[in-house]
Amino acid sequence: MRTLMTTSLLLAAVLGGCAAAPVSGAAPPAPEKLEVRVLSFLPHDATAFTQGLEFSGKTLYEGTGLAGKSSMRAGPAGAAPSVRQELPRLFGEGITVLGATAWQITWRDGVAIERDAKTLAERRRVDYTGEGWGLCHHDGRLVMSDGSSKLTFRDPVSFAPTGSVDVGRDQLNELECVGDSVYANVWQTDKILRIDAASGRVTGEIDASGLLTPDERSSADVLNGIAAVPGTGEFLLTGKLWPKMFRVKFVPAA
């Protein structure tokens, strides 16, 4: 009887241990489904072809595109910019501000412009290979998109590439870095992805549709501007040629 009981206990322990063991190669959890809850809205320059949007402190920076119409601007959110610099002949894209330095990239010109963060005066230009779409900064490094599924990390001083991750989703456009996540507008959609910066895994999908009225939508272009409002857990959203910016929270989808 003692031998039978001992054998039964050992068998139960082995089976219990097997049941508790993690399954290798298990699929990662599905992305969290989120939507926007609009808290308020602010006026936005409806002639601005928005390519980048980012707060640094209380100052809102915006980069705009189109050849011959590109610029970088800074000032209070919802007011006329207090500082503005044009970008003649080039097609401006994403922007980011890291300390006393602001970076602005270009679409197919292969040039990144380093600016003074206060005056936006141009300091120098750095060449890079490939297209430029979105830009933000995470953990002391720059994060850049090129319209593909790849996010490239770059040195914030030299702008040299230092690594990359593949997100598995194409058309990554304007970027916003918040904590350990990168938020990416998906070009030509009303979707924003929340991406783990270390692995490239998509942890959230945000439905940002329905912000503009049908009349506003008729003269506007795509969603393409996301800026985290410091210290609030809230965001400003806008788009190319949009007449408004929306202050929102991301909440679980209904």
From TrEMBL:
Record has Kinase as a keyword: no
GO terms for MF: glutaminyl-peptide cyclotransferase activity
Keywords, sorted A to Z: Signal, Transferase
Secretion signal span: 1-26
One Pfam match: Glu_cyclase_2
Protein name listed in UniProt: Glutaminyl-peptide cyclotransferase
Biological source species: Amycolatopsis coloradensis
The organism's taxonomic lineage, starting at the top: Bacteria, Bacillati, Actinomycetota, Actinomycetes, Pseudonocardiales
